[in-house]
Amino acid sequence: MRRLTTALVATLFTLTPAGPAAAAPAGHRDPAQCPGGAVCGWRETGWSGGPVYWSPPFDSRTCLVEDGLGPFNSVWNDSGHPVRFYRGGNCDGSYVDLDAGTGSPQTPWPVGSARVLEV
Prior knowledge:
Number of helices: 1
Number of domains: 1
Structural class: mainly beta
Strand content: 15-25%
Helix content: under 10%
Number of strands: 8
CATH superfamily: Crystallins
Distance between the termini: 27 Å
CATH architecture: Sandwich
Shape: globular
């Protein structure tokens, strides 16, 4: 069931590659505002309403949470590592993994926390 849920969420999650093809729609913020090496979240879709970001060093045992600043409805991973974005606020609940250099201008559900994998 978990594999099916993850697969469903992954198909709903819009991935955006890094580089020129990642230009945000007019009137929206650009995910390039995410500092190099960071994991970023925006409160609104289209990379608006932020960003809030976590900077290295990262530890794969640490749950990244910004109490009072989330949840996030668009995210970007520039950490250099895969990142797991969770629906729950304590790295729990539904999740989707994003490779480095990818993000989503509109997550399928508000993201409450994240964890950098394979550090």
